[in-house]
Amino acid sequence: GAKGGAAGGVASPAAAVQERLPATVTDDKAGVRSSGDPVSSSGVGVPVDCFGSRSGAGRWLSCGSLGPHRAGDLEKEGELEAAVAARAWRAGPRDRPELVLTYANEVGTAWVANLVLSLRSIGLDNSLVVSTSDAHCGALHSSRHRISCGWTSWQVPGCEQPNPVRTLWYLRHHYMVRLIALGVNTLALDGDITVQSNPYAVLKALPLSRHTLLFSLDHRNVCDEVNIGFMYCNNCSDGGRAQWIVRETVRREQSFCSPNAAATYGDTGPFFRETDRLGATAPPHLPKRWTSAQDQKVMSDVLASSCCGRPIFRRRIPFSYRLRDATAFAKAFFASDGCNRLAADSDGDRTAHYAPLRLHGAPLGAPEPPPETMATVPGDVLSSWHGTGVGEVAGWSGAWLGPQKPVFAHFVGGDVSGTKVVLMQALGMWHFEADEVVAHVRRTQRLPPNDTAVTGALPPQLLQDHCGIADAHLCWATWALRQNGEGAVAPGGGAGAGPSRAVHAADDVSWLRLLELSGVGATPVLPTGAAFLRHDLRARARLATLGALLRRVAVRPRAHCD
User: Fold this and answer.
1) What gap in Å lies between CA 154 and CA 138, rounded to an integer?
2) Cβ(443)–Cβ(134) under 8 Å?
3) From CA 107, how far away is CA 441, in angstroms rounded?
4) How many H helices and E strands in the chain?
C-alpha cells in the first residue's frame, strides 16, 4: 500500500458527529421517521418547498426535518462538524448520516440552486453547498429558498500559481476525505445534475449497496473512464482504500502544480528516468498546460492505480515527452494488461460494474484496511446528455421525456446543444425558483446591470435592480416585478422601453418573486413539431395576456426543437 495515513491514538471525529446528530424518532402509526427539531440554530424554519413521502425507501427522505444552516469557513476548527450535525440525515440508529455535497462560485449559482431545488422536489434536503466566498454563501442562505452552505479558504496546497478553477474542482475531494473521517456517507454532485426520483431507493438496494465508491461512466467499463460529476461514498472506512483514492487525487495534483514539479517530472527527475533509459520516451520534459476536466483525468488514473495495484498515468501525465516506443510506453504507464477492467454484478434487472480496490493509505506494517470496491452505476440510475457511457440513455435522444428518465440526469455535453439551462427547461427539469436565488445573489453582490456571468434561465434584465437612469434599458425589474414595499411601475415609452424611473428597494427585504403556472395542462406532450407550433402560439398569446393583467412579465420556458 501507499505510505502515510491517519494517525492513531485519538478519539474518533465520527463519534463526535454521531453524538451531535438528532436522535431518530418513529411514529408507528404513520410509519414516518424523522430527525429532531426542524429549526436551525439561527431560528429560521425549514424550507416550505418540500415534497415526498417517507414510506418504504422514503425513510431516507429528509425534507422538512432539517433546518437551514450557514457555516463559516469550513477550514476552521469545528465548522465542518457543525455543518454535518445540522445538515446530515440519519434514517435510523444503525444508519450512517447521509449528506449531499455540491460546490459553486457566483457563476454557478443557478446550477446549484436548481440542483438543491430538484432534491427538495423529491423529498431530500440533506444538502450542503460549498462556496469559494463567504459573501456568496451568505447570499445563498439569505435568499427566500434558504440554501444551506459553507465557504472555504482552502486552496490546493503548494501550487506555484493560484488557479480558482483548480480550487473549485478539487475542494470536493478535499472535503470528501474529511467527511469519510467523520463517518458520513457523501453523495457529491456537480451542479449540472438534476434529480428526478429518490436516489437512495437505488443506492441502498442491490447491487449498488454492495459497493463502496460509486461513479458514473464516461465511456467504457474500465476503472479509468469514469465521470466524477457523480460520486457516492457508501460506508467508506477512515484510512481505507476508497479514502486513499480521494486523498491521492489531491496529492497528485499538488505534485503537478508544485514549484518543484520539475524535480520529479522534468528532464533529470525520476518520473521519466526509466522510460528515457529504455528508449520509450525522450526529453524535453516540460510542464503541460491546465486542461479541461483535469481532476477527472487525475482521479481516473488513481482509480486505475488502485484497481491494478501499481501507479497508472494514462489520462494525465503532467509533463511533455517525445514518444519513441508506444508499446514500451504503454507498458510503463498504462493498464495495458487489462487490470482496469470492471466485472458485472447483477441483481434482478439492474447491473453494476465493479472492481476491488487494492491500494490504501495504511502505514507499512499496519493491518490492512477492510476490503472495498469501486463501481459504476447503470444508465437507469444516471445518464448524461451526450450518453457516451456504456448503457446510458442519452438526453439528446428525447428518451428523458418518457419512462426512461434516469434518477440523475447529468447535462454534461449539453452546452453544444443550446446551453444546459435551455435543455433543462425543454425537459421540464428547470426549477424557476433558482432564478429567484440568482436575482438575490446579483442584488446582494451588487453586480452591475451588464453582468452576464451570474444568470439563470431568465434574462439578466429581469433579475436586476439598483439601476440608475442611464442603465434603464438593462433593468426591467423596477416595473415588471413587484418588490416588497414597492409597487409595480408601468413601463414608460412603450413596450420594452424599460422603467420610467429607477427604484431602489430596501436591501434587507427585496426578493424577486415568481408566479408559476404548472401541471399537466402546462406541460402537454405533443406528437409532432407542427402540433407543438400550433399549441405554442396559443400558449404564448394566453400567457402574454395573463402577464399584462397581473402586471408581470410573462416568461415561457424555452423549447428545444430537436
Assistant:
1) 18
2) no
3) 10
4) 16, 17
